[in-house]
Amino acid sequence: MFELIPFTRHVNVYDPFRAFDEMQRSFFNDNTTLSFRTDVIDTGDAYKLEAELPGFKKEDISIDVENDCLTISVERKVEDEDKRPNFVKRERVYGSFSRSFDVSGIDVEKIEAAYNDGILTLTMPKKVEVKPASRKLEIK
After folding, report:
1. What is the pLDDT of residues 63-77, one digit of tens each?
2. 20 to 30 A Cα–Cα from 98, which one of 16, 32, 60, 90?
3. What three-state secondary structure class fits 10?
């Protein structure tokens, strides 16, 4: 049972930075999972954004675009108090999570979203630059 508890190695007890790290962890609760991880890939004519959202249902995910800002939000609700088992250690995080991205160079009307195996994939076509037509001016 105790092999399920993450092992923390304390190499040097007298490390001067260790105290600062522990203070930061306790102050910020060291929850790097309060957000979700993403990859953004340039495919040439579009960007592909992949967000890791394991354990979420499609209905829990919200994607909004407003003022050149794309926001992905998800929410994980806590189980009912009556149905929860007696935890030895609890690391899963519950609550709302969101990430925002600048989409000023994206054609937001053509963004496509898919969710499969815990990965949200957004295909975001780049805006086509409209070059003004050149014309020759006559000198009078």
Report:
1. 999 988 999 999 887
2. 90
3. coil
